[in-house]
Write a structure and sequence with these properties.
Shape: elongated
Strand content: 5-15%
Largest sheet: 5 strands, parallel
CATH class of the largest domain: Mainly Alpha
Strand order of the largest sheet: 2-1-3-4-5
Order of helices and strands: HEHEHEHEHEHHHHHHHHHHHHH
Number of domains: 2
CATH architecture of the largest domain: Orthogonal Bundle
Length: about 375
Amino acid sequence: MTDSTIAEKTPIVMVVDDEALNRKLVSAMLKPQGYEVIQAVDGEDCLEKVRQVPPDLILLDIIMPKLNGFEVVTSLKSEEQFSLIPIVMVTALGDVNDRVQALEVGADDFLTKPVDRMELRARVRSLLKVKAYNDHMVNYRQELEFEVRRRTLEIQETNKKLAKAHEKLRGASLETIFRLSRAAEFKDEDTGAHIISMSRISARLAQCMGLSTATVESILYASPMHDIGKIGIPDRILLKNGPLNEEEWPIMRLHTIYGGKILENSDIGFLRLGEVIATTHHEKYDGSGYPKGLKGKEIPLAGRIVAVADVFDALMSRRPYKMAFTVEQAVTIIKEGRGRHFDPDVVDAFMDDIGKILRIWNSSQAEHNSELKGTLEEGQV
């Protein structure tokens, strides 16, 4: 947070003191700094004016008629819309107990009368930066929540339409789901290939493990939606050209929660399975995964299957932050994850059928590249 960020809006500082001279002195120190100064003559006047025009900072005397400073702080901090306003207690009292009480009711800082001009300006400048940053984060969170809700409602509305047309369009639903899933990362040209290959590999693994034809088909239809929750992740993180840092990773991991929310409460079987896969495909067999830290058989089988297919395809694919691994490197990593990251039974099925799985992967890449080439040639015409 820089001085220029704060300067975009003229900060409002409220000075609350029952002594007119004290109010005038403090105001005279602050106005040359470019602040708008509002004066309040006592605690009740302060509360009334805060509700009319919420300030960015309050300089508050303790000993006042009607309501003292402690009572004013308690009242303001109890109301959510005013709780983030920094409050500096300005008082001649030197008793430690008064300072402790002020902190307990929610005061943010202290100044002792007579107020030093340089100290006053420094404290005000520092706390206004904190207030500006808090306002920025609140606004950003609200915008993000609104966007997630909006996109979630769009996806849920699409799912309702799919449910009504389920029987008629079942033959074309796999393509529809591919396109829906690609919307979560529509700026990534490699996403299409990833969805095709990992869904087909997931279905093949399910088949190798002896699951029913209906279950294999459901996994084929549901697995493309494993990362649909990324539609709620900010582009600065989703499309970052490099590894995520420790602040970005917790946000990225929320895509499993978002995906589950988007797909929940559907009447269509493969959408219900999609919810399970979206929520659990990043869980690890040893319990070190996310979002719930499920362990072993606590992780639904579909999530355990998709975890192997998803990681294998990611290892084999080039990304902005890494080169593609060789087949040998990718297979070695899958083997080394047996019993830790991955279900041993799924890894064994993967290894037993590695030849077929590689043919599926190569075929999916070729199909995607052919589709992409056709799209580009169409655009040129």
